[in-house]
């Protein structure tokens, strides 16, 4: 993996931006656990989960743009980007009122969360251009700016005592205001976008895969909101802070690897799996050794007694971290229906939660761990078969093996 800035500096910069983004994302529920009632904390966690799921359109757009540019160079993407934002906004207009009724969410807070999501989706186009061009220093700056807009306003609102609705109002404003900054960062004077434009179908495929990844990884939080009392669902929300930590801690690996995966480099895939897997093992071991402390840091002293469940939450995130690498590799290789296995796992998990699993915190948590293990097994089989065919077709005079 090479880039104009050098992979070492690029890795440090993107890692720093990722740490900032994750830190701000974690501060939101941590502050909420200390400053909001259990009911508002559960509502905040549910809204964050919902907007993360809706916001995967941004990640899908970013991945599609990055893969296209890595393969074909600078290409027009405005039409696909506008279409993605419009479709997301339309879907939110339909889904949010239903969420207010079904999940018992406050209406104004839900609307503001939707506005913030639209801004995040629009940002995906410019992040994808920088990632596909392997301009990782501007990309790192863009990720940091977006994190500040997406979460910084909410953090500021909570810290100032604005409450749930006030914090989300500030967050919606900052999420929109950062978009011109991202546009400036992505500009490359003198570079003209040529070649075939990005197809909307590519965005749909990448977005569908990203949506499936987020739905399956957030399904336990939504199920906890549905089946557990408010106090227990609030405690479960604290546990998912550990899940998301293990899931997103190694995300820099996928960010740096994606352009090379789009070019068919299987060695990059193997290295990415090793690094993400090692990160997950380390974080799960740390959660097992200091579960009480982990819950105390995530939610305060009232939640320290749940420390025995910390490795379950961390292991779930670690498994999904590896799954996400495999799914991104399939998207980069233009594999058909890369999201299908994850939708299958989600359906199995929801059915099990409805019919079989105990409606308790450990019942939902262990069910989520089982779902993550199933998703990893299915994804590994599919990618293994694809790589096996690629190796069979490998020619000795080539330096990389295509996994298309």
TrEMBL record:
<keyword id="KW-1133">Transmembrane helix</keyword>
<keyword id="KW-0812">Transmembrane</keyword>
<feature type="transmembrane region" description="Helical">
    <location>
        <begin position="7"/>
        <end position="31"/>
    </location>
</feature>
<feature type="transmembrane region" description="Helical">
    <location>
        <begin position="363"/>
        <end position="383"/>
    </location>
</feature>
<feature type="transmembrane region" description="Helical">
    <location>
        <begin position="340"/>
        <end position="357"/>
    </location>
</feature>
<feature type="transmembrane region" description="Helical">
    <location>
        <begin position="80"/>
        <end position="101"/>
    </location>
</feature>
<feature type="transmembrane region" description="Helical">
    <location>
        <begin position="271"/>
        <end position="297"/>
    </location>
</feature>
<feature type="transmembrane region" description="Helical">
    <location>
        <begin position="107"/>
        <end position="127"/>
    </location>
</feature>
<protein>
    <recommendedName>
        <fullName>Membrane protein involved in the export of O-antigen and teichoic acid</fullName>
    </recommendedName>
</protein>
<feature type="transmembrane region" description="Helical">
    <location>
        <begin position="309"/>
        <end position="328"/>
    </location>
</feature>
<feature type="transmembrane region" description="Helical">
    <location>
        <begin position="139"/>
        <end position="160"/>
    </location>
</feature>
<keyword id="KW-0472">Membrane</keyword>
<feature type="transmembrane region" description="Helical">
    <location>
        <begin position="43"/>
        <end position="68"/>
    </location>
</feature>
<feature type="transmembrane region" description="Helical">
    <location>
        <begin position="166"/>
        <end position="186"/>
    </location>
</feature>
<feature type="transmembrane region" description="Helical">
    <location>
        <begin position="236"/>
        <end position="259"/>
    </location>
</feature>
<feature type="transmembrane region" description="Helical">
    <location>
        <begin position="198"/>
        <end position="216"/>
    </location>
</feature>
């Amino acid at each position: 993996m090479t880039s104009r800035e050098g992979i070492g500096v690029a890795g440090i910069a993107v890692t720093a931006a990722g740490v900032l983004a994750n830190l701000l994302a974690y501060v939101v529920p941590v502050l909420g656990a200390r400053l909001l009632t259990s009911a508002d904390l559960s509502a905040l966690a549910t809204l964050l989960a919902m907007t993360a799921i809706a916001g995967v359109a941004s990640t899908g757009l970013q991945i599609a743009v990055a893969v296209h540019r890595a393969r074909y160079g600078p290409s027009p993407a405005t039409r696909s980007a506008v279409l993605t934002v419009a479709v997301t906004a339309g879907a939110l207009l339909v889904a949010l009122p239903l969420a207010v009724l079904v999940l018992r969410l406050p209406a104004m807070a839900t609307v503001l969360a939707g506005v913030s999501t639209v801004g995040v989706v629009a940002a995906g186009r410019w992040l994808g251009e920088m990632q596909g061009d392997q301009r990782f220093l501007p990309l790192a700056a863009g990720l940091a700016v977006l994190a500040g807009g997406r979460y910084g306003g909410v953090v500021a609102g909570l810290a100032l005592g604005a409450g749930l609705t006030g914090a989300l109002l500030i967050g919606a404003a900052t999420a929109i205001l950062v978009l011109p900054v991202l546009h400036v960062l992505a500009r490359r004077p003198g570079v003209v976008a040529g070649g075939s434009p990005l197809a909307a179908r590519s965005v749909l495929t990448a977005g569908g895969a990203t949506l499936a990844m987020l739905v399956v990884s957030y399904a336990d939080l939504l199920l906890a909101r549905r089946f557990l009392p408010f106090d227990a669902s609030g405690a479960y929300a604290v546990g998912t802070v550990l899940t998301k930590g293990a899931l997103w801690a190694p995300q820099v690996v996928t960010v740096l690897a994606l352009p090379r995966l789009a070019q068919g480099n299987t060695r990059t895939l193997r290295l990415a799996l090793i690094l993400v897997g090692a990160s997950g093992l380390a974080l799960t071991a740390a959660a097992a050794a200091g579960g009480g402390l982990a819950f105390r840091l995530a939610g305060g002293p009232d939640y320290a007694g749940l420390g025995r469940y910390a490795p379950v939450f961390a292991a779930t995130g670690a498994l999904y971290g590896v799954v996400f690498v495999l799914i991104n590799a399939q998207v980069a290789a233009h594999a058909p229906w890369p999201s299908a296995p994850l939708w299958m796992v989600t359906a199995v998990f929801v059915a099990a939660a409805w019919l079989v699993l105990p409606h308790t915190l450990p019942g939902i948590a262990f069910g989520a761990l089982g779902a993550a293990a199933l998703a990893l097994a299915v994804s590994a089989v599919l990618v293994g078969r694809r790589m096996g065919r690629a190796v069979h077709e490998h020619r000795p005079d080539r330096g990389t093996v295509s996994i298309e």
